[in-house]
Design goal:
The structure is a homodimer of 140-residue chains. The first copy, chain A, has 140 residues and is mainly α. Chain A has 6 helices and 2 strands. In chain A, helix 2 crosses helix 5, helix 3 packs across helix 4 and helix 5 crosses helix 6. The structure holds a DNA duplex (30 and 30 nucleotides).
Chain lengths: 140, 140
DNA sequence: TGCATTTATTTGTATGTACAAACAATTTTA
DNA sequence: TAAAATTGTTTGTACATACAAATAAATGCA
């Protein structure tokens, strides 16, 4: 992945996006065996850990807009991994039995994901980079 | 932007994507006055700096796939900021007069973009973060 | 010289995400 | 307590990007 020579390399917008695209590819690969792409896997993990969680809470956890979360949930409902129970203006999201069954595999794939990038980057560097990125996100 | 409490915060995929979304928003804001979103502005900068540049070269500079670059060029052609001259299997991309005229504004907006995030994050931290992100991208 | 391979670009199609508006339910307030 | 404001969710629509396949041109090889 050589990009050293791009004139945009000192632009955080550009660099952040490039990293994001690569990481998404790596992450999607990690979850591919389960048949989910990253966001769906993350969604399912959240719901499995907090059955009945509401879309708003999910959107905060995932740092995605509520409309995006609705779309993710819809697809997972269609695939029979999640169910919605609407009550008044709120909605509660639950895993199905099939959704629950996937949890161990997802956790394993997630661990692999961490392992795969942190061996390439080095554990310390990955950790520091992730923290720095979080710090930036938080400040911006 | 509080996200501290997300269980995914120590996941580089997640963090990288969150940063990317925020930076894209900031960057699009910076270029909004020109009526371009970030990628189009970057594309136009490249073409203005290298009239006749080919899509493959652009895709390397921008770290986007060739098909994405084709799509970007198409839209900029439609908006009369760029022109393609096809010659055999290669294509050369040129700015139109209107496209050239935009260059100073784009450069200014780009400078503002840099200024706006680096004042929030601190110059040194922005610089280091960008470099670290580039390093990661390069290694992955 | 003609066929096979590689290279550059485009096209068809799909995905992830967002914004703005719509809706529906709840809470506040006057 | 009725109207107004707020909150949670969904819908319509649009955009950036990618992958795989198609095309078309150039190159290498036999």
């Amino acid at each position: 992945m050589e990009q050293k020579d791009s004139k945009f390399c000192n632009c955080l917008y550009y660099s952040a996006n490039a990293l994001s695209r690569i990481m998404t590819k790596i992450s999607d690969d990690a979850f591919a065996s389960i048949g989910l792409s990253s966001s769906y896997a993350f969604l399912l993990m959240i719901v499995n850990d907090h059955p009945g969680v509401q879309p708003t809470e999910i959107s905060q956890q995932m740092q995605l807009t509520p409309s995006t979360v609705t779309r993710l949930i819809e697809k997972m409902e269609h695939r029979k991994y999640l169910e919605r129970k609407t009550n008044g203006r709120t909605t509660e999201v639950y895993p199905t039995v099939d959704g629950e069954k996937l949890q161990p595999k997802i956790k394993k794939a997630w661990a692999n994901l961490y392992h795969s990038y942190s061996t390439v980057l080095g554990k310390d560097f990955s950790k520091r980079l992730t923290e720095d990125i979080n710090l930036a996100t938080q400040k911006l």
